[in-house]
User: Fold these one by one.
Assistant:
Number 1:
Amino acid sequence: MSAPGRVGVVTVVHGRHEHLALQEAGLAASHRPPDVRVRVAMADPDVTGPDVVALDVAPGRPLPVAAARNLGARTALDGGADVLVFLDVDCVPAPGALAAYAEAVADEPGTVWCGPVTYLEEADRPYRLADLARLDAPHPARPAPAPGERRHDDRWALFWSLSFAVGAAAWERCGGFDEAYEGYGGEDTDLGQRAARAGLRLGWLGAARAYHQHHPTSDPPVQHVADVVRNGRLFRDRWGWWPMGGWLEAFEARGLVRRVGDDGDDWVVAT
């Protein structure tokens, strides 16, 4: 068993400052605090501090989430990180999450590790760190091993970027996120395919739990329909199949998109 390396925690930020504050509190309460902390502020001048890297966004352009995550990873690696932990700004890590990620990456550096994520209810606000373990109920659409359990599951379509960890060498092997994706959706599924192509494995780590703070959203995310169609087509051109199929069908039912092409295998935003 190798010794755990230096952990860099990367979070991409655009708003959600209260959520970011609770995430910072969770990191401060970690059994193993991060060695390197990077917050990438996308067109968000209100996020400041020595661990902040600013990323400008041209007016009217979609947020460059993939590029921001890659910038965060480069910054963390340049700062001496051996293990990259990516946390969505809404996610609060459990106290043992970072240590569990570091140990798992040290043991199996060829595996990309994801932790179970609980979607917290709005009714449970205000969220307190001491209450999160009691509210633990991982999302049913993803594997959720028990604390202390590791599980391999190479269904890369299940990979998500809310909370995951990867070693520096494995990150270089897969090449990071594809920066052609802009805005909402697709870039994490694409990263999973890139990791699979690079020969990496997918693992689910029961001790690396995280808690996703509630925020208003639409289901399906109708405010992101153009991003979903654009990024979905890019993914199809890369990998031969459409991701986010459930969303596209829900958009179709609302008259927001329509199928085109000889076999109805393409989607466009309805006009």
Number 2:
Amino acid sequence: MNLSNKLKYWYLENKRHLPWRETKDPYAIWLSEIILQQTRVIQGLPYYEAFLKTYPTVFDLANAPEDDILRLWQGLGYYSRARNLHETAKKVAFEYNGSFPNNYKDLILLKGIGDYTAAAIASIAFDEVVPVVDGNVFRVLSRIYGITSDISAGATKKEFQQLAQTLIPQNNPALFNQAIMDFGAIQCTPKSPDCSACPFIKECIAYQTNQVDKLPIKISKVKVKNRYLDFLIFVDQNNCTLIEQRTQKDIWQKLYQFPVIDRFENKKADINSIIQTQYAKINVQNITLMNPKQIVHVLSHQKLHIHFWLINTADVLTEGVQWSELNKFGFPIVIHNFIQSYSNYITNQTLP
């Protein structure tokens, strides 16, 4: 089976036209790969364009304040990617004089760059013959070759890398890598792929043995923990509120939030008691639960159950921030969405 040639012809007819494919600039390619980690192309594209417009060179990104980068990243999730992006930009700009390493071995040493990202940059920007192996590649190869190994196991990843290495052509590794990624994203999809239009229908073991919906096999499952968050939105008569920055190595590190009651047990928070204990100096007029139905926000390892409480005070919040200035700070998307939805209510006391 000449998989490489079939993939090439399929790709030339069906490829997605994406801006980072129109360049060999390693900065632009790296930026796209970091943004597209854990993010679909349709969601990541506007962020890629915004970052490239705001920070057209690695020096611009390296010199930017981290808060600005986190605010621009807002909504993409997995915020450690943005922090790593900034760290690597600084290293490349200030230690490598703006030049990215031109090979897989050195690229993988940079923060936030793993096997897949290093292979993508090395092959696309520098034509190094190194295959990418991600979820799309696992799916395509496991189905075509009927591989039933557990893809969550480290040994299986090596098995797929070795197979991909035998398939990638020496003369155009970039095209092969982009072709197999697009083939998995467009044709050999996770659910209900259109096998009748697949160029590998005769060779595909999964299709021939009726295992398309069973492959690839992934045995391990991430255990998701429940977490309960009550955000306290203090607002004074000047429309000022209190915010704080999350500094611990936890979810949303270095993003901003309202003061929060954070717990892992499903027990009702005694808001009045907590305010009397922790915020005794604030003269509370009234407390309003803004969302009687909790907001459920799902992360990779946690399911967040969220309530927002509006707490009006007659005091002047001397350390407060004007509500209209909140857009200058980077918030987790769930808090950002709340601010957008309830600004009218909070500033004018009318329902949104």
Number 3:
Amino acid sequence: MHESPQKQNVTNTYTLSGTLCTPKNSAKNASYAQYLIHGVGFDSSYWDFAASEEYSYVRAAADAGYTTFRYDRLGTGLSEKPSDAYNVVQSPTDLAIAIKFAEMLRDGEIGGQKFDKIVGVGHSYGSVQVQAITAHAPAALDAALLQGFSNNGRVTGQGPFLAGGAYSVATEVFPDRFSTDELTNAYLVTAVPQANQFDFFYFPYFSPAAFNLTRATEQPATQGVLFTQTAIMGTATEFTGPVHVVTGAQDVPFCFRDCYAVPPDAKYPSIPAYAQELYPKTSNFSVYIPTNTGHAVNQHYSAPDVYQEMLAFIDSALM
């Protein structure tokens, strides 16, 4: 197959599903919001994981007084699934959508509330998009929290490692969940449960219920996304807000199972710390590496403690 380096414009209108969640009691500040973007293999329920209440980041954020907005990326969940999953549903399209949603939050076009301060919070490919927003539209966000992320190309010369997922056609792996009327063959999922576990989990630090629900609700990723996911990243030369990276110590896609595996003479103490090179003007850069945690941070036993650490950063970023 020949791949053309030429660019093409994508112009269309898509139906996307999102959820704005405001605290039941009262927000710390009604004009502050966390903007949540999920990664490959999930939809926005990654942030409101239903295995049990303590796995829900949305609930933890609401309890701490923060409004959140999350949405199903194009091709996942309740959002539209275009038939061209190679040329259309790829990272530049996703980035354009992500920037537009951030602008809508600023302008009060979601929930009728203008948000003066917005923290972009991503997971995995969602973090890649948040990072890309800070590089391409730096005024869209006031702070960035990149979960399940590293700039590992600075250390290894490679992008995220996802080959262990043995990605296969979604309609063949889950014929009871996805039909050929809905998805073309370029929509992919991990081939078997063991492949999903290899990429996303660190045994035995997760419950069977959490893993089984993750597998039962796994969302397809397009060939376009898988082939282009880091192409949108860049040095955020104009972004001055605080940046926090939260990556599990045993993350496979971004750390190859050991986030401290850097050379003896390395410039930084961990692989995630190299992301600092993407932010030459940040007001504050920090890294947190939770132990006994794989790539799907929110699905591990450590999640409740990780959430409190994340929310501490949110507090400081929005002071």
